[in-house]
Amino acid sequence: MQSRTVARELALLMLGQISDRQPAADMPLDALLQQAQASLSQHVREALDQAATDLQAAQQQLLDSELQDQGGAEQIPRVRQHLQEGLAHAEQGLNRLSASLELPRLLMLSDQDEIRRGAVDRTRAVLRSREDLDQRLDAVMEGWRLTRLPRIDRDILRLAAVDIEQFNTPAAVACNEAVELANRYSDEQGRRMINGVLRRFTSAPAKG
C-alpha cells in the first residue's frame, strides 16, 4: 500500500470532522489527525463486527435449509431460498472480512511521519482550495449538484482533485483510488457517481 493511498484515507477522515462552513484558517490539523486515527481504529472494529454478523446469518440460513430439507419434496423451493440467502450472507461477510484485513495495516502505517505529513498537507490543500474545487466539480455534475451529495462523497472528490492538480498523482491512479475509498466509505450509488464525475473532471479543459 503506497504512502499516498494511506495519507489520502487519513485526510478523508480528517475532513469529515470539519464543517463545510468552517473557515480554513487556524484549523487544528494535528488534533484532527489524531481523531482521524481513532476513527480509523473504530472503523476496523465495526467492519470486523459486521463481517461476523454476516457470517452468523449465513450459518443460520444454511441450518434452516437443512431443517427444511427434512420436510420432503414440497419444501424444495424454501430450501433453495434459504441456501441462496445463506450464500449471499456468506459472500457479503467474506467480502467485508477481506476488506477489513487491510485496515489494521493501514492503521499501523498511519503513524509514519511521511504519511502523517501527507494527510495534513492534503487536508490543508482541500481547505485552502475548497471553494474553487467545489465550483469546478459542480460544473461537471451533469444535472446534479455537488451539495446534494453525501459529505463523504464530496470529500472523496475534493481529495482526488487536489491529488491530481497539486500532488502530481496521475489522473487514472487518483480516480481508481477515489473509487476504492468509495467502496470502503460510501455505497454503490456513491461509487458510480464519483467515478463519473472524476472522468468528466479530468477530461475537462485544464484550469487556466
CATH class label: Mainly Alpha
Helix content: over 70%
Main sheet characteristics: none
Number of strands: 0
Looking at this structure, what is the CATH superfamily? Answer: NusB-like
Strand content: under 5%
Characterise this structure.
With 208 residues, this protein is an all-alpha fold. Helices cover 77% and strands 0% of the residues. The protein is built from 7 helices and no strands. Helix 1 (3-15) packs across helix 2 (29-69), helix 1 (3-15) packs across helix 5 and helix 6 (171-185) packs antiparallel against helix 7 (188-203). The protein is elongated. The model has no long low-confidence stretch (mean pLDDT 80).
Quick rundown:
With 208 residues, the protein is mainly α.
Summary tags:
77% helix, mainly alpha, N-utilizing Substance Protein B Homolog, Chain A, 208 residues
Map the helices and strands.
Layout: H1 3-15, H2 29-69, H3 76-109, H4 113-138, H5 151-166, H6 171-185, H7 188-203
Helix pairs in contact: 1-2, 1-4, 1-5, 2-3, 4-5, 5-6, 5-7, 6-7
